[in-house]
Amino acid sequence: MYIYFDAIKNPIHLVQCPELLAFIKKNLSGWSIRVSSKADPHHKPIITIQKTPNGYSRKSNWLDEPKVYKHPVEAVCDFFIDLMYAYLAENQNFLCLHCAAVKFGSELYLFPSTYGAGKSTLAVALAKEGAQIFSEDVLPLDLETGECIASGIRPRLRNPLPEEFSDDFKNFVEVHTSLESRQFRYLDFLEDMLAPFGARGKISRIYVIDRVPDLKEPVEDVIAADQILKRIIQRNFSHAAPATSTLTFFLDMIEKLECRILKYPNTEAAAAYLKQKISTSRSIPNHLAPLLVDPPVKAKPRRDGKNAPVDDLSNSDEVLYQQSSGIFIRAVEESVFLVGPENETLYCLDGLGGPIWNILEEPISISGVALLISEAFPETPIATIKQDTRNLFQDLKSRGLIDCPPEVRKLQSNL
Prior knowledge:
It is built from eleven helices and 25 strands. The chain is α+β, with helices and mostly antiparallel strands.
């Protein structure tokens, strides 16, 4: 059986598992689907799911090895990841965020939060309060128009629901549950609560959510531009667009929008607070101020899917390095964002990383940088400083952001 989606040229091949078709259709909204028993010689399947004695085995262009799931709900749940990758592959001008997004009236709110932060349950709780879900997991963004595109994938929650939820919320979820496994359940929302695939909208506000059980009530505050930028870049998993375009798009987006952090004791309190806030909000200036400290943004993966080679600099403390040529640099608040010479690597430097990057305008060794830092922080052991500096140099070099200049390399080889 071959499944064809209007939004994707190549088909999905179901081998000895026609029952999955009903699960796929049930959990999609707005996707145009047709089924054929014959293969199209001009378009080879990009995803194949085959029923085996061990479960449903899936192969795709985005998997290094097959994935196997015993339960059909879990097999379809993971299949949707590849379905979105297939959609993005045919839309090179799209980015895609791992986030939740909901629409209240004409305003669209984005929640680019970390794994396990509660974005899915918050999206469902907001739908219960009258919002329309654009996404509770993945959200494509059009680089050309700046619009979000509804994924059309029905909201999914993990089982079991936490005990903290009220009976009212649990009943709401139970009434709307359509398909369920031990691990997941899908909710069958109508269009007033779930935007169909392809619906578009522009982001009105960005909220980073942070669950703090000890709080008595939700509180919000502004968040620094560099911190929200890092959060958003970390959530992007579409890397077809040039890194400079990605960075410029997100910079432009956060400069125009109000970006906030919301700390809350539980999901239902957050939903009630946001409903009240959104219904009474007025446009106010966006004054960004430092608030959070996050881990550095990881470098962008290579387009060929392979990891960048890691250089061992353990015996190179005296080798001179400097910034590679052709690096795009953008300072935002306390952070420095770098785009590599091939326009694929996107990297962020925090803390002392920024000053060290400035020092690397001229050739300098690991030992030289460590000495400068030790003069500023004499209480820190020089061995610790040197190891941290070595790790930074190694990371920068593996991304092509620093190198030993040819003339310096030649001079050092003659010594």
